[in-house]
# Entry
Amino acid sequence: MKISDIEKLEFEVINMAGDAEVTSAYTSDLLSDVMGNAQENGVLITIQAHKNTVAVASMKDMKAIIICNNREIEDDMLDAAKDEEIAIFKTKLNQFETSFLIGKLLNA
Amino acid sequence: MPNLKADLHIHSCLSTCGSLDNSPQEIISRAKEIGLDVIGIADHNCTFNAETLFNIAKQKGIIVLPGIEITSSEEAHLLAFFDSPQKAKKFGQIIFDSLPDIENQPEKTGDQVICDEDENIEFVDKYLLNASKFSFDKLFTMIKDYGGVFIPAHIDRASFSIVIQLGFLPPMRYDCVEITKAESANQYSEYNHIANSDAHYLEDIGKRYSIIEAEEATPESILKAIREGKITPVFSPITNLK
# Structure
């Protein structure tokens, strides 16, 4: 799947960055857990809507972040995502519902 | 009884998100220039620069409380301060060793720099902004056993605060709680409050601070005053801040 496939899920686009291939997904709200276990070229599904999330995604070479439950995204998170060229989406869905949709896309 | 102007939450060049400009020498010069009497050094999950800062401060006539900003296993930040750099060093090593073995990527997060009194530098390879294996509760006991003060950090902020991570502030015997806005005081009225800058850059030192009413201008006496709640938080920059 590609980043543009996430866009088709009608999530709100906060930052678009290229259209890289996404090969995995990781769902977690503990950034240290993401640091330890997420895979590269992945999408991160989380409610942690701040710039540290972007830093961790960048260190793990992840391509996109989906912020769930319509959590408000801080300005410095958006700035960091632009710098690091990581896409950000926002949805009213929770982490489980979002993971389910992304799982279907990855298996398609 | 001196009223000491204190900013206890200051990061040095060890904290990845910080800047190479905030070496121990520069931090002490800046703190003195803007009129702080006491600063706390609180790098993320280690204390490698604490002794250097303590020694430089002594020569320059200001006081450093050697401390640390720990990320608990719940990813809540908390501050601990000790009355001697030796205690801070020993305690800091326990926390550093409890971090997962993940390497820093300086090109993405910046360097983590240890700097001695002669400005010789050394890099820390393990990524510091990770979570310790110890829980918030466990750290409370550990810090108390070491004779330190325990302060939940920036509890009114949206990232890495115990309140955001758990959804509430666990009722414990905190020495005080750190808040960043005057409006937060009412919400946490059962605790004493402290305000600090959380500076990662030199120019941010002193943008918030606290007046501590200590019997003497010594680390022991300042820690005692914190425990007794003799702290007045100030949510505006110190007057000499240019």
